Predict the structure of Sodium:alanine symporter family protein.
Amino acid sequence: MSVLEIISDLVGTLDSIIWGPVMLVLLVGTGIYLTVILRGIQFRRLILSIKNLLESAFKKEDLQGDIPSFQALTTALSATVGTGNIAGVATAIVMGGPGALFWMWVTSIVGMATKFSEVVLGVKYREKNPDGEYSGGPMYYIQKGFKERYNIDAKILAVLFSVFGVIASFGIGSMAQANSVILAIISNVGKGGSISVPVFGEIFIASAILGGVLVILTALVIFGGIKRIGEVTSYLVPFMSIMYILAALVIILIHFDRILYAFGSVIGYAFSPTAFTGGVAGFAVSRAIRFGIARGVFSNEAGLGSAPIAHAAAKTPHPVRQGTLAIVEVFIDTIILCSMTGFVILESNLDIWGGNLTSSALTSAAFAQTLGIFGTIVIVLCSILFGYSTILGWSYYGEKCFEYLFGVKRKYLYKLVFLFTVFFGSITYVDIVWNISDMFNGLMAIPNLIALVALGGIVVDEVRKYFK
């Protein structure tokens, strides 16, 4: 066994431990804790959250911040709405059964309280940089919140979060997304194929050309700062989300006679290990819970600490108002988009558990079964747009983490390295790179969850003040 293989196995083992049952319990447990102390704010204020979303989309507010609150939301959504909505749901259903979708819903419901709290703290403790931009997120509310609440210097936790955030941005936020974008094009256009290692030939040349185009499109946006990212995502995110929802809704309505079967499968298999039709062995309830929660967290990112970085740039009158938009963010990502994917798959006549389809290939086949070539085009286009939007969102997350560590003047160095990783991810894909970035993505949650539990009382105080 080579040194690289040994390292790869070690990283894979560490990744499985970090994203194991303990982490999932911590993420969901923190959401439950915040739901309790905030008295179910995601239920009580959901209508208000939707109202604030609609107001922010059409009303311009001249307040402190860098971008309108709606653009801050779409920037956060650009990083959240991604491959998890297309591939992640399919993987959860194949690996954990239909009941996994139910546990994705549970994760999102408690995740609304988590993300609400993250954003409230992110906006409350943001600060203005020497270049005039606002910066916020876990690194700021960890350092300032612990000092204010407990008179404790917790900067080491803030530094750790920022280090984890920078590394994760190069992997999950850049290389993995670039690879998914290029692969979506190459595997569906022309001869097809897959990208594994850079080799000279038609696939490599095509990947390099497409990767170069992707780098240029990314550079044109990220060098314009958060204002340009906000402007682009304010059009891109609604367009790609509505396109996906409409296509999925058409399929669901066409097969409406199977909607009760699909919904019954989700509820039934969430609590019962009954065997599937055709004699295929049923999944244990534990598998439905495990894969449902894991894919749900991967999709909506509640608890990871990424979203408050974007929301901290918002022009908003109060942290709690911006926090209400974060509730809608999770609702859109998981309750709407992930559910759409799940019901399209479950209403299809595909051999979901006996066949060889999984991930985005299963979702693509389910769309194509009803809509034909149009369904394939929707999935390919959404895969490209979802991946590109995630690159934009994560470039900002990584930049702010880098800025916290090394100062404002060096943030352009980060952008150059980020663009290189976009190109590298376009022409190659190595499992160890994915596992390392996935591992650091999970590590981001640890200091953030500590802060959320410790500073939950501050969130409660802010909510009381706001609604008075």
Q: What stands out?
A: Strands lie at 67-68, 127-128, 134-135, 314-315. The chain has one domain: 3-467.
